[in-house]
Design brief:
This protein has 725 residues and is an all-alpha fold. The chain is 73% helix and 0% strand.
């Protein structure tokens, strides 16, 4: 009977190579369904093969799980066959993971680890221990047990150290860092994890680092996420530039590999001709060997010649190794995200760090290329026009979540860029796209609801609808569990209330600013501190507390300049400080500060801030009797004001304007929410980017209402409702 089994296995292999997966499965099922008696080990191998095919090429997870559970029962009768037992444990764990059955997954993995602990510490046993600890950590993260997850990863790190396998050590070290970034317990733990990654990466040497492309991207991106969190933008830029260069080099290499592959295919076709002359055949064969050598050297990585034991992506046909960014060797076959998603993430990082510096041309190019790549991947998952989350295959949900979250990040930054440039209609269009994606995929994109509300507030504030802006900011704060996001939205709302200009609104602003100001030092990083100092300084200026306002604003400006590099925020700080200097009759400093602010505002194409600065400069020149400068300045201000009024009129007349500023939240219909949440949670280590929201403070006021804030000599409520923190 073994000969029969081997014959059917051979037929199954042949069918799979031809892409006839159904025939391959039927060949294998013939063994399992046969009335003839096969050895248990034959049936186990067959069921493992069936489950692997089902997981690679179909969405039939439950049937694969049934085959694996039957294999596990059969293996209990066999005292040895440890490799088969390990493979069964691993695949069964991943099936439980995919269907969201976390308790049986943990139980399976703990049994597997017990088995590895009972065996002699051979290389293969320790590698399997690494596999099981990695999967166990992911399961524990889903349950929110971060400490136990770190313990499992540390156990994997110990196994990798015993194997003297630095790449595998690096895999576990970066995974530990990732968990620390997801659940930030304390600064020391995060920094310790970061230092260990740095030391291990340095110890690999340049050649091994170059071969470990997946680890390079994973490690560098985690460093960028850390530096975003602590607002270390200057050092983060170095990592972004490095990743961008590596990405471009790898893309060039892949294009060259594809060209050589096409050339090799053409040569193979020519060599297949029976009438080819010997001399020509010899030349073509020599050229064929050269191309094969070149392709072989291009695909040379530490693990490229080894075949993984199970698929990295369930329900998706396995991709070639050169299209993957592998983190660890078999039997782990680790991959954080597909290469296309990682490359889109690099583009996103370029945008996030380029936008505050006013590099809008490069940002637009990266947003366009990133969104185009994501749309291609979404189409592969069946997400085209009209498809909603209820239509998705269960096994496609988590991958869809990766790309949809990336898409929303790109759109968020597009909104921010267009609002900075006062291109309100373009900002509307991007924001409406975000809203439509959220309505179609409300569970997958649930975390984006607060971002959308915040951006609705940004838009409303930019077009002068301050009351509506404050409403959306407050709603955004209610929708998020992030302390940082809540603080930023409350600061935004406070600025909108200040711009309304009456005593009640100023009181509401103070009520929002006060608690954040008192806890400003408790946040990780300085973004919240810089923002609340801006809002508080603005409020103090409205209350005629000029010296105190200047002290707060000077401190905030120093933080924004040294740590954040956000030119728009710096320009707004400078404008208010210049205004205060003028109010305190320090005309020399006022002129210098305001010119710097105007230079930055021009670089950013920030028309409202330009108008605001020009209004203050006009007052300065008038007070100094510089009639020529005053007339020239006022003429330029009126030109910019006309430009802004035209853009505002276009925005207000758009069909999307009312729906975006309307004081109502987005209404959505939820579809099989629990299933989708479970599928999303099952990939928590891959989906959780932990990228802070990327929109900075809005321009404090459009020019149409700037006189309410700028005319310090005619404030109606100067002494009314005056309160301090």
């Amino acid at each position: 009977m073994e000969a029969v089994a081997e014959g059917l296995w051979g037929l199954a292999d042949y069918a799979e190579k031809k892409g006839e997966i159904g025939k391959a499965v039927k060949c294998l099922e013939a063994i399992c369904q046969s009335h003839a008696s096969f050895l248990p080990i034959v049936e186990v191998k067959t069921r493992l093969r069936i489950s692997t095919l089902l997981l690679k090429h179909s969405h039939n997870v439950n049937q694969a799980k049934s085959h694996l559970e039957r294999s596990q029962l059969l293996l209990k009768q066999i005292p040895s066959c440890f490799d088969l037992k390990f493979r069964t444990f691993s695949l069964l764990s991943q099936c439980y993971h995919l269907v969201g059955a976390i308790p049986p997954q943990k139980q399976t993995l703990l049994k597997a680890l017990d088995l590895t602990a009972s065996l002699p510490p051979e290389v293969s046993v320790r590698l399997w221990a690494c596999n099981f600890n990695s999967q166990l950590a992911n399961a524990l993260i889903i349950e929110g047990d971060y400490n136990s997850a770190i313990s499992a990863l540390e156990s994997g790190f110990v196994s990798a150290s015993q194997l003297c396998y630095p790449e595998l050590q690096m895999f576990f070290a970066t995974s530990v860092l990732h968990v620390h970034l997801m659940q930030w317990y304390d600064d020391n733990s995060v920094q310790s994890a970061l230092r260990r990654c740095d030391d291990l990466w340095e110890s690999l040497g340049p050649d091994r680092r170059e071969q470990g492309l997946g680890l390079l991207f994973y490690n560098e991106l985690l460093h960028i996420f850390y530096q975003l969190r602590v607002c270390d933008y200057k050092n983060a830029n170095q990592h972004v530039d490095k990743l961008d260069a590596v990405m471009k080099a790898d893309s060039h290499k892949m294009r060259e590999a594809q060209r050589l592959t096409n050339e090799l295919n053409a040569l193979n076709q020519s060599l297949s001709r029976p009438d080819l002359p010997n001399r020509e055949r010899s030349l073509l064969s020599s050229k064929q060997a050269q191309i094969q050598d070149r392709l072989s050297s291009m695909n040379n990585t530490n693990w490229s010649t080894e075949q993984p034991l199970e698929p990295a992506y369930f329900g998706n046909t396995k991709r070639p190794w050169q299209d993957k960014l592998v983190l660890a060797p078999p039997p782990i076959d680790g991959e954080w995200l597909p290469k296309s998603a990682v490359y889109a993430l690099v583009d996103l990082m370029v945008v996030i760090f380029g936008r505050p510096r006013g590099l809008f041309k490069e940002c637009a190019k990266r947003i366009q290329s990133g969104m185009r790549a994501i749309q291609v991947e979404l189409a592969k998952l069946g997400i085209t026009d009209g498809v909603r989350e209820v239509d998705l295959q269960h096994s496609a949900i988590w991958m869809a979540g990766v790309y949809l979250m990336l898409l929303m990040q790109f759109l968020e930054n597009k909104v921010a860029v267009e609002l900075t440039r006062s291109e309100f209609v373009e900002a509307q269009e991007a924001l409406v796209q975000m809203k439509e994606w959220f309505i179609r995929f409300p569970t997958i994109l649930q975390a984006c609801e607060s971002i959308i509300e915040m951006l609705r507030g940004q838009y409303a504030h930019s077009v002068g609808c301050y009351s509506e802006a404050a409403f959306h900011y407050i709603e955004a704060a209610k929708l998020t569990g992030s302390k940082s996001m809540q603080a930023m939205c409350q600061v935004y709302a406070a600025v909108s209330y200040i711009c309304i200009g009456d005593a009640e609104s100023s009181s509401q602003a103070l009520d929002l600013i006060g608690p954040i100001y008192r806890m400003k030092d408790s946040f990780v990083g300085v973004r919240e501190q810089a923002s609340v100092l801006f809002a508080y300084g603005l409020l103090l200026m409205r209350q005629d507390e000029y010296e105190e306002a200047r002290a707060r604003l000077a401190k905030g400006l120093q933080i924004a300049h040294n740590s954040m590099g956000n030119l728009q925020l710096i320009a707004q700080y400078l404008t208010i400080l210049g205004h205060l200097a003028l109010a305190l009759h320090d005309t020399v400093q006022a002129r210098e500060i305001l010119r710097s602010s105007l230079t930055l505002a021009k670089k950013l194409y920030d028309i409202p801030t330009q108008i605001w600065v020009l209004s203050v400069l006009t007052g300065l020149y008038k007070g100094l009797g510089e009639i020529g400068n005053e007339m020239e300045n006022e003429e330029y201000r009126k030109k910019k004001l006309d430009d802004l009024q035209t853009k505002l009129a276009d925005a207000h007349s758009s069909i999307h304007h009312i729906e975006l500023i309307d004081k109502v939240r987005i209404e959505v219909q939820q579809f099989h929410e629990l299933d989708i949440k479970r599928a999303m949670e099952s990939q928590s280590m891959r989906v959780n980017f932990d990228i802070p929201e990327s929109v900075g403070l809005s321009t404090p006021m459009p020019a149409s209402s700037s006189s309410r804030l700028l005319d310090l000599d005619n404030l109606d409520n100067r002494r009314r409702g005056k309160r301090k923190i």
